[in-house]
Amino acid sequence: MGIEGMVNPPVIDFPREASCFDIAGLSLAYGDTPALEGLTLRVPRHRVTAFIGPSGCGKSTLLRALNRLHDLDETVTQRGTIRFEGQDIHAPEVAVDELRRQVGMVFQMPNPFPMSIYDNVAFGLRLQGGLTRRQRDDVVEWALGAAALWDEVKDRLGDSAWSLSGGQQQRLVIARTLAVKPSVLLLDEPASALDPISTLKIEDLIRSLKGQLTLVLVTHNMQQAARVSDYTAFLQQGRLVEYAPTDTLFTNPRLAHTENYITGRIA
Amino acid sequence: MTLAERIRRSRPVNEGAGAWLAAGSVALSLLMLGGLLLLIAVRGLGHFWPASVALVELEDGRQLAGQAVRELPLPDGQGRERLYFTGNRDLDGGVWAWLPVEEIAAQRHPADLVVLERQRWGDFIGRLVAVEPRETEDAPGQSDPEGAWMQLQARLAELETLREARETLERETIRPLARRLEDDPDNVEARQALEAATARVTRQTAAMEETTLVLESVAGDRFRQPLDAVLAASRPNAMSTGEKLGAWTQGVWRFLSEGPRAANSAGGVWPAIFGTVLMVMLMSLLVTPFGVLAAFYLNEVAHQGRLTRLVRIAVRNLAGVPSIVYGVFGLGVFVYGIGGTLDDWFFGDSLPSPTFGTGGLLWASLTLALLTLPVVIVATEEGLARIPDHQREGALALGATRLEMLTRVVLPMAVPAMLTGVILAVARAAGEVAPLMLVGVAKLAPQIPVDGDFPFLHLDRKFMHLGYHVYDTAFHGDDVQAAMPLVFATALLLVLVILVLNLTAIFLRHHVGSRHAMTAP
Ligand SMILES: Nc1ncnc2c1ncn2[C@@H]1O[C@H](COP(=O)(O)OP(=O)(O)OP(=O)(O)O)[C@@H](O)[C@H]1O
Ligand SMILES: [Mg+2]
């Protein structure tokens, strides 16, 4: 399928808002396989930005670049800069663990640790230390409440996290991430493994968080992107194709290409 | 033939044959295993059952008392002959008698035949005539076997108490005093106390030697036997099944709880049990941290390049090196190399007699730890590889450093695999004998390596081992025939000890593993 969008510069209707992430000329390859090519975009602060695009286009790769999870993989090579609140995240003075605490991430598959529900949420808090037991209890309760899970688990905090349902596990992971008070939440298809009701709960959660946090959401679900996000970026084969306020992108895409994808004419 | 037809035709036939073959081989393996265990259990445990003593009258009028062991056809095919255990090595020079079955005129089981277990000369089988003070010279009067038997039992009980008292005195008073005198030879008070205690022991020993038994073999030889050399007495023919069961239990218990006698051909195996278990536990303590750290390094830290792959292959191959090679390595490096150096540096006073420069508990444990290291590394690495990457990423994404991620998420998840490795290591180490013969196992080490003397655990001491004990009992005694049941009993015990060690590790793993449902999300 010929893709004219690839050769043309991306169409960007960039928000006139303070930016949280400032990505410039980001290229990334796994070994010899390029995954991202010359990506330039800004993620506005305290808004929900959705990344959409066909499978394998590099959405997860981009998300993982934002909190330097690629550092672990020796085969990954990366060019370009990513600024987080004006700071280059690859600068030597940046402490990567602190960056990752600030830029929380929820993965495609729920990944609670094999510990109790309480210990999962307290995990990040214990790493930081400095909290009394009471304070920690309070934060755990707050985080579980914020993730809309408190009522379901308040009587079984000592149970294994792996005894929860998939949807509950995903909300637990969100609570665990919220507990360390990040300023950004990266969500990689958080609802892909969930039933409609759990999905709705997570969407409500995203909406309720966006005043205080910058959220980046990867999703395959166009309705979901339309329902919860403020801005949407359409990626294809490692390149940014179109980036605009969600309303504009979904109702009035500039490129036929984007329109085809949104309306389901391209897989 | 269409594909569908082919499937329909071939399926049941193949499956049936395959299933039968598989089930058959499982059954065969189980049968062989069961047979093996049954054999050693029967031959080992049967030994402690008080076999009845037959009084055999031969055609030519000779009389003989003994326990029937087995029967074989005569070499010329004319009838059969039977083997009796007759004891009385001091009288007859041997303890076995083969008798042609045809020549046996009569066989009875009189209740008054006694079997005495003695410190020297092995078992006595015959009649008890009297129990007397040592120095009475007059010939025993009217014989009263019943009365003498009662008296013997009472005296044996007294003797037991006396023995215990003497041992306690030696352990708790005499040995500490002697040590104190060694450090401080001018301590008058200690010297006096020691002399008093020694005198008490002498008195007690004299009291024990006071009584003698007058014994008579069925052939009519009469002699005196000092009571203090008698360990146990029984009249198997007079015992009910319940009493025999009691005696059996006692026999098994003594086998488990006492030290060996008569160059390992009699007595118990307690020091060997203790040595085996202690050595295996020390080995586990040594191998676990090294193995786990190595596995973590290989799987989590090292750059996954060609060198790491090479190291991994090498480690896997180390598991196949014959164990005697590890023994040679242990002898060369640990005993002569490190041990010799330690002696030069710290134990110069006692040279030329070596302290660490000879085989001992520590070197044996280290050698076996080395031997089992690959097993632990491989098992732990497999466990680490099974931990999904998203667990590691989850921890990192919460701001954990690499070290925190490894210790708080990866390590707990790897515990079951680590314990599996330790279980395999224990199973391998507990049965290993060959390398131990080079680095510290002893034929006889009456002092177990743990006692009340500082530093309580004596890593430099030699120790006994069940596996080596089996070998030694089977081949190095002067009467292999008599020692055979002990060989089987010891072998059975070795199997049981390994089983218990393994079950402990399995229990541990289950306990650790079941805190959270370990079904990966
Ligand atoms: N660890 C890896 N090693 C090599 N190639 C990878 C790796 N991870 C991803 N890729 C490749 O990089 C490209 C982008 O992958 P990425 O996971 O970012 O896609 P995605 O947009 O998230 O897809 P999906 O919607 O299916 O999750 C794909 O072609 C993929 O095959
Ligand atoms: Mg993805």
Distance between the termini of chain B: 45 Å
CATH-wise, what's the superfamily of the largest domain in chain B? MetI-like
Low-pLDDT stretches of chain A: 1-6
Percentage beta strand of chain B: 5-15%
Number of separate structural domains of chain B: 2
State the CATH class of chain A.
Alpha Beta
In percent, how helical is the residue content of chain B? 55-70%
Assembly annotation: heterodimer
Question: CATH top level of the largest domain in chain B?
Answer: Mainly Alpha
Number of strands of chain A: 11
Write down the secondary-structure element order of chain B.
HEEEHEEEEHHEEEHEEHHHHHHHHH
CATH topology title of the largest domain in chain B: MetI-like fold
- Give the CA-based shape of chain A: globular
What is the strand content of chain A? Answer: 25-35%
**Bound compounds, please?**
adenosine-5'-triphosphate, magnesium ion
By DSSP (H or I, 4+ residues per run), the number of helices of chain A equals 11
Kindly describe this structure.
The complex is a heterodimer of chains A (267) and B (521). Chain A has 11 helices and 11 strands. Chain A has 267 residues and is an alpha/beta fold. Chain A has a single domain (44-63, 96-262), classed as Rossmann fold (3-Layer(aba) Sandwich), CATH 3.40.50.300. Chain B folds into 2 domains: 54-257, no CATH class; 270-515, MetI-like (MetI-like fold, Orthogonal Bundle). Chain B contains 14 helices and 12 strands. Chain B has helices spanning 3-46, 89-92, 145-183, 188-209, 241-257, 270-301, 306-318, 323-346, 361-386, 389-397, 402-430, 434-439, 466-476, 480-513; strands spanning 54-58, 63-73, 80-85, 96-100, 104-108, 113-118, 124-133, 211-216, 222-226, 230-234, 260-261, 266-267. In chain B, strand 2 and strand 3 form a beta hairpin. Chain B starts with a helix and ends in an 8-residue tail after the last helix. The model of chain B is unreliable at 516-521 (pLDDT under 50). The A-B interface holds A 67, 69, 72, 74, 97-98, 100-101, 104-105, 107, 109-116, 123-124, 127-128, 160-163, 166, 169, 173, 176-177, 180 and B 303-304, 388, 390-401, 404, 408-409, 412-413, 515-521. Chain A: One of its GO terms (molecular function) is phosphate transmembrane transporter activity. Chain A: Residues 21-262 form the ABC transporter domain. Chain A: Pfam families: ABC_tran.
